[in-house]
Amino acid sequence: MKILAIQNRMGIGDMIIYLPFIESISKKYNTKVDILVKENSKASEILKENNYVGEIINLDRSNKSKKGTHDGIFGSINLANQLKNYKFEKVFIFNSSLRYKLICKLASIKEIYQYPLFEKKNQHIILAAQNFLKVSIGETVKSEPIIDIDKKNISETANKFKITKNETNIILGIGGSGNTKRIPSKIFLRFMEMCENNYNCRFFLATGTKDQEQIILKDILNSKHNSKCLALDKMNLLQILPIIANCDVAVCNDSSFSHLSAAIGIPTIVLMADTPLLYGSYSSKMFPIIPDGETTVKHDTLGKNKIDPQKIFHKFKELIN
After folding, report:
1. Would you list the DSSP string of 60-73?
2. What's this model's pTM, rounded to 2 decimal places?
3. Average pLDDT of the chain?
4. Residue 145 clears pLDDT 70, i.e. is over it
5. How far apart are CA 299 and CA 277, in angstroms?
6. Which residues contact 225 (CB under 8 A, 6 or more apart)?
7. 317 contacts: CB under 8 Å, gap ≥ 6
8. Do residues 213 and 188 touch, judged by C-beta distance below 8 A?
9. How far apart are CA 205 and CA 175, in angstroms?
10. Which of 42, 33, 36, 32 is nearest to 12 (CA)?
11. Sorting pLDDT into bands at 50, 70 and 90, what band is 121?
12. Which domains does the chain have, with CATH numbers?
């Protein structure tokens, strides 16, 4: 049976959130599920070992630099013709867009399952997916994403980077897609100092290459903790994932690395400064820290300077003990 799942949201985090639902479809029909996703979901890298995913088809919608081959009316026709060649029997569309329903009809897919049309506004990313699968296939799905990493790769990576059980290995996700999400370096440095005063630690610095991310990275590398740090900014995800899998704890901004580390099974302290709390608490492996003086977090909380390093360290101690 040929089954397609369409997940058109951008980014790694949203891709990871939808994994339990794609896996549930695969188990229900005992077959791999092909997925239509955007390239910046990095699905081809993060799902390399997940055996319930079949072919990963690139959804080429526009970005800031160029128009995509699937944009507009002609792009929709191009996409329908492309999907038609796969001869899919079922499709599960994780959105409320009429556009994708019409594309799937043009692609001659007989069984089309989709969110209720035109209900995108204020749609809860997890509850909507759970309700969708409960109605469409009768399955109750927990929000517990898992990314599989090859055990041999984990072992070889530990040897390559001399990651040992004699140290407490910590992923620090110091980057983030927006300035309001990035916790200042001084807060990470204070947390690192507390760790080193009490434990034999090693820190793996996960961030991107944007200028502001690099400033935070340089602040940490120029500190007294330099000898205990390994920067991961020049590595790709295929290199980084087994490093994360060798770590004991992750402390991350609300970024791709908080989603990745939790899905790999690493207890992850998520520093929530300016996005809805849901994105740092949907997995049992996530432990959110919110700004002082706040009872929750949402867009425009603007709390990055009010994250208490003492609270991070307290949660860290709970997790490793």
Report:
1. ----SS---TT-HH
2. 0.94
3. 95
4. yes
5. 9
6. 189, 192, 193, 196, 203
7. 198
8. no
9. 9
10. 42
11. confident
12. 3-137 (3.40.50.2000), 151-320 (3.40.50.2000)
Task: Give kind and range of the element (H or E) at residue 16.
Answer: helix 12-17
Contact 192, 282 (CB under 8 A): no
Q: Tokens 């041999």 sit at which residue?
A: 152
Q: How many residues does the chain have?
A: 321
Token output for 127: 């509850």
- Dihedral sign computed on CA atoms, order 289, 295, 298, 299: negative
Amino acid letter for position 83 = L
The CB density around residue 141, as the number of other CB atoms within 10 Å, is: 19
Q: Write down the residue that tokens 């997995």 correspond to.
A: 283
Structure tokens, 279:
């994105």
Residue 120 confidence class, pLDDT cut points 50, 70, 90 = confident
Q: Which strands form 90-93's sheet, in the order they lie side by side?
A: 53-58, 33-37, 3-7, 90-93, 111-114
Q: Any bridge partners for residue 35, and if so which? A: 5, 56
Residues 6+ apart with CB under 8 A from 234: none
Nearest-angstrom CA–CA distance, 207 and 317: 24
Tokens standing for residue 126: 């997890």
The radius of gyration computed from the CA coordinates of the chain, to the nearest angstrom, equals: 21
